[in-house]
Amino acid sequence: KEKKYDRQLRLWGDHGQQALENARICMINVTATSTEILKNLILPGVGSFVIVDGGRISGEDVGNNFFLDPDAIGQSKSKVLLRHNFSLELNPDVKGDYTEEDVNQLLNKNPQFFYSFEVVIVSALDGATQRKLAELLWERKIPLVICYSYGFTGYLRIVVNEHCVVESHPDNAHADLRLLDPFPELIEYANSIDLEQMEKKEHSHVPYLIILYKYLQAWRKENDGQAPKNWKEKRQFKEKVLEGIRKNEHGVQEDEENFEEAAKQVNSALVPYKLPDSLRQMFEDPKCTDVSEESSNFWILANGLKQFVENNDKSLLPLRGSLPDMFSDSESYIKLQNIYKAKAKQDIDLFTSYLCNFGYVNGRLSDQEIKRFCRNAHFLQVVRGRSLSDEYKKISQSVLDGLISEEASDAVWYVMLRCVDLFHTNFSRYPGVIEEEIDIDVTRLKFHILQSISSYLAFPGLSEAISDDYVQETCRCGAAELHSVASYMGGVAAQEVIKLITSQYVPVTGVYIFNGLKSTSISLDV
Amino acid sequence: MEVDEVVGTKWTGRWKHLRKILERSSPFAHPDFEPSPDILEFMQESCRLLVIGAGGLGCELLKDLSLMGFRQIHVIDMDTIDLSNLNRQFLFRHSDIGKAKAEVAASFINKRVRGTKCIPHFCKIQDYDSSFYKQFHIIVCGLDSIVARRWMNGMLISLLEYDDDGNLDPSSIIPLVDGGTEGFKGNARVILPGMTACMDCTLDLYPPQVNFPMCTIAHTPRQPEHCIEYIKLFQWEKDKPFGDIPIDGDDPAHIKWICKAASSRADQYGIQGVNYRLTQGVIKRIIPAVASTNAVIAAVCANEVFKLATSCSIPLNNYIVFNDSNAVYTYTFEAERNATCVACSNKPRSLSFKPTTLLREVIDFFCQDSSLQMKSPCVTTNVEGSNRTLYMKNIPSLEAATRPNLAKSLQDLGIVDGQELIVADVTTPNSLLFKLKLSDDIT
Asked: What pTM was computed for the model?
């Protein structure tokens, strides 16, 4: 198993994999898009899934779906998908089930059915049912993922009340070196080193961290205790560091890579520490200030972090404890690394002592979880989305910005897809599906539907802002589901589901639209 | 209920989704687009596609292209199936481990998507010449190797035909659609050889791989990776734990041995973190991979092939990058042609050196220059009408015979200002021509 999942374990680790394997998801309606989402969840090993679809397979369904067979035309979609292909073919570790019950019936008679899932995925469900489902899940705090393809357009909406990310894996985070706020053990070690007295070889192998520390102290002495602040001062500081390179008997500078590295690191290493705004906000959140037995582990840990920060005068977070590689001899580097590790361990212990004030925490949090939380303290993220009913009340700023921007924005497709929804509500079919009525549908969309949308999204003049081309194209597609677009969205949506399940990496919290006509895409807060 | 009827590869509604796109006009279509049922027929009967690579991207591509209506699809891959492929290469099952990827993938697709005539080629792309590549309308690459991509790019450029006035014959252009992934990142691009930016025009988008400095590995290791590299570079050769054979990254016994040896080296220095997974990652230079990114990038590529083949919409011009590690991000832009590109500019590039420059330094330049990035260039020149090999790395006897030249300067080799060097390398199927400018004033 470890070998089978090797390539992805390198992205989300064993604990991420464990979370995935424990997860139970629900997929409503078999379409090419939803089938692709499920495929991309089964392959990496999601725990189990249930397919909800009472429909029968048509020739059209088989045409764009890799996992349906023409011999099964006329049979139950959910049953065939599960029995014949998915569970047997893709990944024997994953357990699957299906139900032929209608979603509306389930919602009316057995809403508890949905409570057991970590995430619910839905494709091509009529507007009214979708809203009903969204409301139910919003109350139960279960994320709902809506995803479908319409012609060349792919649509993804994640409806999630609150999602907390411990490991956001930022791409280029600065190392946590504490040069400007050194801790006693670092000071002690640095003071024990005397650059002047060193042998040539030793001097050229001092880690840049120590070099910067030394030059920083010297700078502070000459500048009323201040560190270099602006670009000019940092450049001067850099020059001083480079002057520290030893010269040979002819007055020519030796080759000292460590000093060159030190000069290069000045800008990133001397950034003054500031508690990230996102954390400041998080600490003010009532969920963080008032934790109780019902609080999730995340908020309990966040409260511990708040206390940790408030109990030191610089509002420092626990030290990350990892050291980037740097030019050095092995011994000095390892010594330095151990100093950082030991300090990080101290911080974790202190952090844990704040947690222990809550009796009910005992046994709920593993050492691993606490350690991960501390190591990622700088990057914690709480993302909050809006409910579907809020979205439909008023057009959002981000859609508006797209519509009034001079360059063609894919936000237009958001409006067109809202129109398609409304068209479906009014006519019980999608625009453009009947060959003979395409022209009538164009008129209906343009004059009737767009008008209504502009009034209920509270944006007068919407229909003028949208060129006829988009209306034409919407009808041309006639709800065609192209496999290429379905497959694109299947990849995107599956990864968002994995993010929601593992609490790693930051998910989309609004709408994401892919435009296959131009191979562009856009994220919208809605 | 009425049930759609199936006759062979035909059934009611099978192409209903595609027909709406191909048989109706659109304001976003290419000006040449004329909606008609003939387009689907062309895709099915005449349009020949070549998919290069039957791995993570290749499996997705075969599925996508066959469901988008293409039937004449060739697939080429030299690899066999490994257990670690199964988390994303969904045309393979546990029982297929060890079999040829191209063959298993092709037979799966032919069985599943009725009417598809996928033909596998279990070999390297370099095993075929231009007569093979000429037969295709569009080529799609789903590779993890930049060298192979550049070779393919060079092949398609060599197929271009120009008239006497130097005008490109459009019918000789075979579009190249290329996709690549790494973890949550990916990119896809459309190349019209001779018309838009080619692989070599944008080589700076693929920075050369950075290796650890040798002195760090040998004398001052600090990271577990340094210890593993040490075992790979020095200890393996010395101890020959499994006889006189190279390291096989897929042999668990090899990795275990390296892991153990690296651990004890790490212990000596107090370094922590050597384990099996890391060892294998370093030895095989493993790039993380996940099903979703492959699905996304392959889908973009298939969508572009569909647009190129049918004109139903304007193709991507010409590059998209994708990253879903933080929300979902894409950036679409036009990569520009490089007027001095050695692969597609159609003119020999001139290079300036001092007469005292050593041949070794010239060869290093070919390997390190960011716009050339060659791997093992073989250099010949023309002296009084006959070819003379200056250095040839890949054939041992010739290498030995030409090695002394490396330490000679250009003037000592008898090379004069204006002379042309002919350089062959694995990154291109064609030799490249460089015009030398020799002058003392060059720094």
From this structure: 0.94
Domains and CATH numbers, chain B: 16-183+289-316 (3.40.50.720), 214-284 (1.10.10.520), 349-406+418-438 (3.10.290.20)
Nearest-neighbour CA in chain A from B68: distance (Å): 6
Contact B195, B335 (CB under 8 A): no
Element (H, E) at A120: strand A119-122
Quickly tell me which residue has 């999942």 as its tokens: A5
Q: Which of A60, A96, A133, A32 is CA-nearest to residue A493?
A: A32
Domain definitions of chain A by residue range: 2-168+481-524, 184-269, 277-384, 388-477
Amino acid A351 reads: F
Span B55-79, pLDDT tens digits: 999 999 999 999 999 999 999 999 9
pLDDT digits (tens, 9 = 90+) for A223-272: 999 999 999 999 999 999 999 999 988 888 889 999 999 999 999 999 99
Distance of CA B117 to the CA centre of its chain: 25
The string of DSSP codes covering A18-65 is: HHHHH-EEEEES--HHHHHHHHHHHTTT-SEEEEE--PBP-HHHHHT-
CA dist., res. B32 & res. A168, Å (int): 47
CA separation, residue A84 to residues A29, A72, A87, B54, B197 (Å): 17, 10, 8, 24, 45
ipTM: 0.95
Q: Single out the catalytic residue among B198, B201, B215, B378.
A: B215
Q: State the CATH architecture for A2-168+481-524.
A: 3-Layer(aba) Sandwich (3.40)
Contact A497, A171 (CB under 8 A): no
Residue with structure tokens 């290079």?
Answer: B351
Give yes or no for a cis peptide into A91 (omega within 30° of 0): no
Q: Hunting for tokens 């040798």 — which residue is that?
A: B214
Residues from chain B that touch A11, judged by Cβ atoms under 8 A, are 183-184, 288, 290
Dig out the tokens for A291 from the structure.
């934790």
Considering only CB atoms, A476 lies closest to which of B24, B114, B183, namely B24
Q: Are B301 and B313 in contact (CB under 8 A)?
A: no
Residue B148 CA neighbour count, 13 Å, CB half: 20
Q: Going by DSSP bridges, is the β-strand pair B176-182/B138-142 parallel, antiparallel, or unpaired? A: parallel
Q: Assess A3–B contact: CB distance below 8 Å, yes or no.
A: yes
Of B343, B384, B347, B408, the residue nearest B155 (C-alpha): B343
Q: Say yes or no for a CB contact (<8 Å) between B296 and A491.
A: yes
Active site residue B198: no
- Residue A305 to residue A311: CA distance in whole angstroms: 10
Whether B304 contacts chain A with CB within 8 A: yes
B100 touches chain A (CB under 8 A): no
